[in-house]
Amino acid sequence: MYTELLDIQPRDLKFIFELKKQSSCSVRLVNKSNHHVAYKIKTTSPKKYCVRPTTGIIEPKSTCDFTVTMQAHRLAPPDMICKDKFLVQSTVVPVGTTNDDITSSMFAKGVGKYVEDSKMRVILISPPHSPVLSPINGTLKPVPIYEASILKDDAPSTFESFILPKTVTENVEESKIENGEELKPAKDVEFNIMKDVEELKLVKDIEEMRSKLNELESKLSEAEVTIFKLTEERRFAAQETETLRKELALLRSKRGGRRVQVGFPLLFVCMVALVSITLGYLLTPMIRQ
């Protein structure tokens, strides 16, 4: 049975927190055993941190350093408490094992296999004005370069004058590591301000395109409504025109019938003429006498 394989210095990750600035922290792993030990770094928030390297081989009685870089924050966390956790897994490997031979299956716990888990908390420290100091045992002492370094950001910030708390409570709630949730390996991601600015510009361009697209869609909807109204009006006009044509044809037919009925029939006229001639012929002798 193996005893403790690695000694982690320091046990907690302490980052000097400043808004819109990245912060780095260096950790040293000391191999206390007489075996070759492989290690792997995991975190509950792989998108917020950059770990270099995430895996490695430590020879017996040797040391190895890895650096953790925290991404710049735009807002300070509540009460300066960070619930992110790191897990350092280590296991004994045969002599001659290289970094390329390290796989996730090496750190899977099983019968007859010893995998050591060491948990690390993330502690945020507010920086004094100058120099870079860290509260340790109630006193202030300079922080070594390998422990914490700040990547300067030339962009001015209105939040820099905000005074943050100088200490962080140690009673941090147990995070996903304590609850047994699956941890994800930290990704080797480089964070720089230029990329953030480009992403912001891209987001703004996307928002502008969306607004223009919404305007075009609204105008298209209005045009469709207008076309529908015009189509309906044209249909109604065509129906009214057809109705008027029918009424006009009906009036013409009625008017033609009336013209036929006006005046006396020809037979009646002939009879009247005949009667008139007969009366004239009969009355002419009487008039002469």
From TrEMBL:
Q: GO terms for molecular function, please? A: protein serine/threonine kinase activity
- Which residues are listed as membrane-spanning? 262-283
Instruction: Point out the coiled-coil segments of this chain.
Output: 199-233
Keyword terms of this UniProt record: Coiled coil, Membrane, Transferase, Transmembrane, Transmembrane helix
Q: Provide GO CC annotations from the record.
A: endoplasmic reticulum membrane; plasma membrane
Domain of life per record: Eukaryota
Q: What is its EC number?
A: 2.7.11.1
GO BP terms in the entry: endoplasmic reticulum membrane organization; endoplasmic reticulum-plasma membrane tethering
Q: Cite the MSP domain residue spans from the record.
A: 5-125
Q: Which PANTHER family match?
A: VESICLE-ASSOCIATED MEMBRANE PROTEIN-ASSOCIATED PROTEIN, VESICLE-ASSOCIATED PROTEIN 2-2
The family this protein is said to belong to: Belongs to the VAMP-associated protein (VAP) (TC 9.B.17) family.
What is the recorded name of this protein?
Answer: Putative vesicle-associated protein 2-2
Gene source species = Davidia involucrata
